[in-house]
Design brief:
Elements (H helix, E strand, L loop, with lengths): L2 H27 L2 H21 L4 E4 L5 H17 L1 H12 L5 H4 L2 H31 L10 E4 H30 L5 H6 L1 H15 L5 H32 L40 E2 L2 E2 L4
Parallel strand pairs: 1-2
Antiparallel strand pairs: 3-4
Helix pairs in contact: 1-3, 1-4, 2-3, 2-6, 3-7, 4-6, 6-7, 6-10, 7-10, 9-10
C-alpha cells in the first residue's frame, strides 16, 4: 500500500475507534450515579479509617463547573474501557495488512486475549488503590490539625492513570507474542534478556504508578514479569513448531546474514540420456517453405 492509503486506513480505524468510545460514553451517562459510587469507593475506605482517628479527609469540587466536568470524565473513562474490544480490534486491523494471510487469523485471538488482560490490569489497580491513598495521605504530619481536602478532578486523574498504566502493562506481553509470530523476535532472545527485563519492570512500575508506594509497585511489576515469561514460553513453543514444520528442520533465524543456508536437496544425474537430433531435417520435416517451424 502507498503512504496515502496507509494514512486513509489509519483515519478509518481512528474514526471507528473514536465513535465506539463516544457511543459507549453516552451509554455510561445513564449509569453515572453507579459509576460515581464505584470510583469513589476506594477513597471512602481510607476516609472511614482516618475519621475514626479524628482526621479530616474528604473529596470536594473546587469550582462551580467541576461537577459537570467530573461527570464527563467519568463517562469518558467508562466508555474507553467498555469500547476496548472495538479499538483493540481496529488496532490489529491496521497492522494486519502488513502480515501474511496465516498471521491475520490471529486477530481474533489477539482481541480475545488483550481485552481481558487490559480489564484485568484495571481491576488489579482498583484493588490496590486504597494502599496508594493510605501511603500518600499518611505523609500528613498532623492529620488532626491539617485537613486533607482533595479535588475530585485530581482524584479522578489519579485513578485513571492507575487504570491505564496497569491495563497497558498487562497487554504488552501480547505484543511480544505478536512480534514473535511475525518473526521479529524469538523465544530464546526473550529469555536471554531476563536481567534488563526484571530491572525494567520494577523501574517502569516505580515511575508509572502515581502513588510510588512499594505495594502498588510490586503489584504491577510481579504480574508484568509473570506475563512476560508466559509470552516467552509461548514464543519458544512457536519457534519449536516452526522448526518442526520447516523443510530441513533448520533454524534460519540463527544463521548469520552473510552465511549461505545449506540445501537439503542436491542435484542428481538424469537416468535417461538425451537423444541427439539429426544434423539434417528429414523430408517429412520440410514444408513448402522449408523446414517446419512449428515442429
Amino acid at each position: 500500500m502507498p503512504l496515502t492509503e496507509h494514512i486513509a486506513e489509519l483515519r478509518v480505524r481512528l474514526t471507528r475507534s473514536v465513535l465506539a468510545i463516544v457511543l459507549a460514553s453516552i451509554l455510561s451517562a445513564f449509569f453515572y450515579d453507579q459509576l460515581f459510587d464505584l470510583v469513589v469507593a476506594p477513597f471512602d475506605t481510607i476516609k472511614e479509617q482516618y475519621e475514626r482517628e479524628g482526621a479530616t479527609v474528604t473529596l470536594n469540587f473546587g469550582n462551580i463547573g467541576d461537577p459537570f466536568t467530573f461527570a464527563l470524565k467519568i463517562c469518558a473513562m467508562s466508555g474507553l474501557f467498555l469500547s476496548s474490544p472495538v479499538w483493540m480490534y481496529n488496532l490489529w486491523g491496521f497492522v494486519a495488512p502488513g502480515l501474511h494471510k496465516r498471521e491475520k487469523r490471529y486477530g481474533i485471538a489477539f482481541v480475545a486475549v488483550s481485552v481481558p488482560l487490559f480489564l484485568g490490569g484495571a481491576v488489579l489497580a482498583y484493588i490496590f488503590l486504597p494502599k496508594g491513598f493510605d501511603l500518600l495521605i499518611g505523609f500528613n504530619p498532623d492529620p488532626q490539625s491539617v485537613a486533607n481536602i482533595i479535588g475530585l478532578n485530581d482524584y479522578l486523574s489519579f485513578v485513571l492513570r492507575m487504570f491505564l498504566v496497569f491495563g497497558i502493562a498487562f497487554v504488552l506481553p501480547v505484543f511480544l507474542v505478536a512480534l514473535n509470530l511475525a518473526g521479529v523476535v524469538t523465544g530464546r532472545q526473550l529469555l536471554k534478556a531476563w536481567r534488563p527485563v526484571i530491572l525494567g519492570a520494577f523501574l517502569f512500575a516505580a515511575i508509572a504508578t502515581p502513588s510510588g508506594d512499594p505495594y502498588t509497585m510490586t503489584a504491577l511489576a510481579v504480574p508484568m514479569l509473570f506475563l512476560y515469561y508466559t509470552a516467552a514460553g509461548l514464543a519458544l513453543l512457536t519457534d519449536r513448531r516452526r522448526r518442526r514444520a520447516g523443510i530441513d528442520g533448520l533454524d534460519y533465524a540463527a544463521l548469520d546474514d552473510d552465511e549461505a543456508s545449506p540445501l537439503r536437496d542436491r542435484p542428481t544425474p538424469l537416468d535417461d540420456q538425451p537423444t541427439p537430433l539429426d544434423d539434417q531435417p528429414t523430408p517429412l520435416d520440410e514444408g513448402p517453405d522449408g523446414p517446419d517451424q512449428n515442429r
